[in-house]
Amino acid sequence: MVDSKKATILAIDDTATNIEVVKGVLSDDYLIQAALSGKVALKIIDKRKPDLILLDVMMPQMDGYEVCQYLKSQDETKDIPIIFLTAKVQEEDETKGLALGAVDYITKPISPAILKERVKNHLLLKASRDLVERQNEILEERVIERTKQLAEIQDVAMVAMGALAESRDPETGNHIRRTQHYVKALAIAMAKTPDFKDILTPEIITAMYKSAPLHDIGKVGIQDSILLKPGKLTDEEFDIMKKHTTFGRDALNAAEKSMDIADNFLIFAKEIAYYHHEKWDGSGYPEGLAGENIPLSARLMAIADVYDALICKRVYKPAFSHEKAVSIISEGKGSHFDPLMVDCFMEITQEFDDIAQKFLDEE
């Protein structure tokens, strides 16, 4: 219920007698403001917005229709209910006023009982609309907040699952964070090229960024004797190691089946986990795919993963310099890596180095 004693009514009429009539009918229940012209009324409204306006039609300089049209054109005042009070009784006059946005039309001479009821009802309607609008705003805020929370939970879950796989190999440290940021930086660079500007949208890039930590999730299925072997793997051991791509794909397939709808981040996570060891010339694994048959997300991860492996110390190799890593990736253009992607990488090598320095492994 609206507290009518606190509601403010602005009466606009060039005849003072008419305003006094309005005050006599409504002043016991409402705070009444008065204006003898449209221009004065706009100044009053600018200082304090009323809850409802009673507006005469026939006024000099600026008539009621002009006042109504102006108020309805402004965001700050368009929701104020306007009731026309006028001696004009032709149907076209009433139609014109309602078409301009007025909520009601009362003819003079004014019936006090009708005026009271119409004002009360329109204030109640406005209060109801305001309540619904506020409830909708609260609901929208809650939906936005909940969506944000779910996105954060998803991000944490992805990083945690990736970290679970990396925890099997203590030397990899911040590998998942670095590769995640490499993928994003390279995708943004690719998005500036004509061939990929419509494919690598901000939403797609974000989904790839979020899915990147799961690229080696399949390593949880590889026994320690192979995963942590301090030296070169035998052919048989390497065949087992290669199965981490299949293990990762299968695990993510199972997760995807539990969802009612497909989600880009799981689709990309599955592509990356399964295909990030494929090579542009078809000599990679597990499928031996070549060229653009390799999913774009996996081609991005291939560069990110190899660059990070090169600059990091491993039990079987020392850490290479940034310059050496860049040189090796450049040499792999068209054989290991997508040629256009290598071109983009060469333009942002400093970004890769900055990311590597930001997420250095702890000694």
Number of helices: 15
Indicate the proportion of strand residues.
5-15%
Provide the domain count.
2
Low-confidence region ranges? none
Shape: rod-shaped
Structural class given helices, strands, pairing? Answer: alpha/beta
Following the backbone from N to C, one meets helices and strands in this order, namely: EHEHEHEHEHHHHHHHHHHH
Approximately how much helix is present in the residues? 55-70%
For the record, the CATH class of the largest domain is Mainly Alpha
CATH A-level architecture of the largest domain: Orthogonal Bundle
Would you identify the CATH H-level superfamily of the largest domain?
Hypothetical protein af1432
Question: Could you tell me how far the N terminus lies from the C terminus, measured between alpha carbons in angstroms?
Answer: 67 Å
| Strand order, largest beta sheet | 2-1-3-4-5
Mean pLDDT, all residues: 88
The biggest beta sheet reads:
5 strands, parallel
Q: Report the strand count.
A: 5
CATH topology group of the largest domain: Hypothetical protein af1432
Radius of gyration: 35 Å
